[in-house]
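Slide 14.
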Amino acid sequence: MMSSENNPVSDSQSKISIGSGHCMLEFQDIEHSGNYQCRLNLGLKASIEFIFEANTSIGMDGFSLYDPLATYIDGIKQELLTIKHVNFFQAATLVPVKTPLQYVGDDDTKMRVIKARLFNFVDFWGGNGPTSYDLVLVWQNLKIVISATKNRKEAFDRLKAGAVYEETHLVEITYEDNSEILGIDATRIIQTLNRFLTFVKGSWCQLVLPEGFNDNERVWFQLNAPREAHRNPSSWFPIHSAKEVQTLFESFYSSHSKPDLIELWQTLIYWYQNANNNERGLDAGIIIAQTAMERLSYFVIVQESGMLSEKGFKDLRASDKFRLLLSHYKIDLNVPASLKIITTNMTKCRWTDGPHTVTDIRNALVHPKVQNRDAIHDSMYDAWRLTMWYLEVCFLKFFDYKGSYTNRLTAQWLGETDEL
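Slide 15: predicted structure.
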């Protein structure tokens, strides 16, 4: 039987014990039974692991690592991969093919509260919860409380000192009228919240090990690991006035009631966080961010407003697609004066405005014959910052956000904000 413990417990700084029980593998048409221990491994690359110990040696003929195996965890079939084995497969480490893995319950399970963890989230204050370090997000009957852990300061100190993963916040999800949440709705709520928190932080952020409870009994449980090790990306999020994002959350969540917008924001948030990771290279960031800009422009100019036909949009230069989007949101097309390297090179490179500048630099990155290559190379960091600023402000205006935000082009100190 699966372990009856309701709460995962930490057995070391890098491993969190989740549960244990019976495991059966099908290999070469033979069933091999044994026991497992499940844990969250917070190594350099976090993962869910099942440590399997068979009752007898399985043998290795015809076996190769990383092949999916038919695996039954407490009688429920799961797709797992073998990443390590010893003693002719009498012991092995298995990982899910994909996460989250449904460990307890299913789409029809009913629960009244969902509890989860956040690793490496933003060290914000100015929230609207019981303390300044708590944030309450509400949409209609849905209520989400994000609370700092008791050792918040120590956790962030360890991250600053080089820690890879630290549990920084706890999340609790309920309906305000105390009605039941179905498993299928729990998954949808979590997916939407993950996108929102990723946009807030500027890098991957997702609820980890979400558990559903009914009268203090755990009835639903999904297994997953933090998606990304700690990094401190630039972000628009006003960390000293976090409560202002409540209105953004309402609009963001409302948009996810429409299938076409779910697909749109799933794509855009994925591109946004990838473009915002300049450790992958400024060139990649510029290209990915402008891909996201063009995708959003198509939706706003063609699908939403009907300003242009699909063919009319396709025939435009990329810079004109950006100009239409920025003008739609009343964003100045001129290059901000804070981008001094670009402004210095504008005459030499014959750049006329911001959209022309960033698209010309992108084109230079993907085409072999380029004039003024040195000036373009020197301008890449500014071009990345400008494109990311365009993207963030367009996102915020799409959701009709009116409040403070961190302007990555002008902010000089932590917490400095502009009004949108």
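Speaker note: The first strand starts at residue 9 and ends at 10.
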